[in-house]
Amino acid sequence: MRILFFGDVMGKPGRLALRHRLPALRARHGADMVIANGENASGGVGLTAEVMQELLGMGVDVITTGNHIWKHRDIYAGLEREQRIVRPANFPPGAPGRGMVVHTLSSGVRVAVLNLQGRTFMEEVDCPFRAADALLATLPEDVVLRFVDFHAEATSEKKALGWYLDGRVTAMVGTHTHVQTADPALLPGGTAYLTDAGMCGVEDSCLGMDKDIIIRRFLTRMPHRFALAKGNAGVNGVLVEADAHTGRATHVELVRE
């Protein structure tokens, strides 16, 4: 069982890059499933219902999100209706959508996809550790393939959750920083780990945004309207291979083009 996961898709450049490269990457890696974080896919901040359908239409099986998912209100109904998108599970009760889905592949294999958000250097939400416990407790025993997107700022928080979930999930991959980290690992309990998958977007940028605007902001401390960077875009993510019978990860590697 091979799962391709792509980090934060940054606006139209990121969408076009993913659309262009996904067929070849899926074939090259023999991927059975594709997951992508879409929380910045519309204009670099948030996700619209239209772009959600665009991502699903290009071959993404499940969309994960993060703290910017609430930017465009038209996605709220989509979060409730569409079974292939998740938002961070540890938002308080009453938030639209769900924090976990069990996706059934054409082969009949079922994969649980969980979405959590960190609390360090981010807005206060419920505890992601306890939210993970609660979600995992609801899964049938035969759903052994379990993929977690932890949308968080702090490396320490991501590392801690990775160790906390080791042996209980197939993979725990971080998102949010837009910078791919060089620490893919197979933890002792059989969980594939990566601190951050990076982004799909323009590399000649500051996290996908126009670098000159960001530099001016740092130099002057004056507010400037962010704008997506222009130029050649790449894709960043991770490939996780796992035993479909046990759920244990057997291989993990960075994907970067």
UniProtKB/TrEMBL annotation:
Q: Where along the chain is Fe cation 1 bound? A: 8, 39-40, 178
Q: Which domain of life is it from?
A: Bacteria
Enumerate the SUPFAM superfamilies for this protein. Metallo-dependent phosphatases (SSF56300)
Report whether Iron shows up as a keyword of the record: yes
Q: Where is the signal peptide?
A: none
**Pfam families given in the database record:** YmdB
Chain residues that bind Fe cation 2? 39, 67, 151, 176
Is Hydrolase among the key words of this record? yes
One Gene Ontology term of the molecular function aspect: metal ion binding
Keyword terms of this UniProt record: Hydrolase, Iron, Metal-binding
Question: Active-site residues?
Answer: 68 (proton donor)
Q: Which family does it belong to?
A: Belongs to the YmdB-like family.
Its recorded name reads Metallophosphoesterase
**Organism source for this protein?**
Desulfovibrio psychrotolerans
Source organism phylogeny:
Bacteria, Pseudomonadati, Thermodesulfobacteriota, Desulfovibrionia, Desulfovibrionales
